[in-house]
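*** Residues and shapes ***
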Amino acid sequence: MSDKTKKLAVVTGASTGIGYELTKQFIKHGYDVLAVAEEPQIHAAAEELSELGGQGSVRAVQANLAKKEGVHEVVKAIEAAGRPLDAIAFNAGVAVSGDFVRDNSLEDELNLIALNITSVVHLAKHVLPTMVARGQGRVLITSSIAALMPGPFYATYAASKSFLLSFSEAIANELKDTGVTVTALMPGPTETDFFSRAGMEDTKAGAGKKDDPAQVAEQGFKAMLAGDDHVIAGSLTNKVQGFATRFLSEQQRAEIHRGMTEPNSAAPKH
């Protein structure tokens, strides 16, 4: 990352899935990228991405963003780059599946909140003031179509995505005259390791058809460049679902969502 004339971006959760594909989009469009993830495989991912070609380069930053120290490591990496941060994609996240009261541990739920919510607020507080002072910057925050309805059997996950959607749209409004834009990316079920990591392979959502993460990332990247406040990415079904939720009560939304996320919901009915 010696060419300081190139734009600089950060992508969190960049080792796999949507984050990996977002990093592709950035380097394709000439950005140098700090690719962040907790897993050691972020180093291999960064090498793979660098070998794909493109106008930008990729540097791996292994950091656990659920910890304050991890956020500080990312801030130090940005400062070490020696140039302004032009864009950041807050994509890191985790899900915890199961009955909140009877299945899930408090430790797992709090770790989810620390990664999905606290780390975004913490890192945003570090990077956005400089963007605003410069009068330019692009921010992409990965929320979810799940943000639009209560999420039984992954209650804290769905709630965290609702937080991110509200947070994103609120600060987008606050910063509307600054030259800094904030976009919420709202994918539906996507072909990543999300469902296996969350233990949701036996749900209808986990077993059903999923969107291509490359398509989701491309749509999110384009919306970010356009300065859109949000984009429902992926299939037309996601967009229809997003529109339909406007006409349903919260309990109706919860019941529909339960049908997709309840354990063993993918099993044949006899």
In short: The domain at 7-261 is CATH 3.40.50.720 (Rossmann fold). The chain is about 45% helix and 15% strand. The mean pLDDT is 93. The chain has one domain: 7-261.
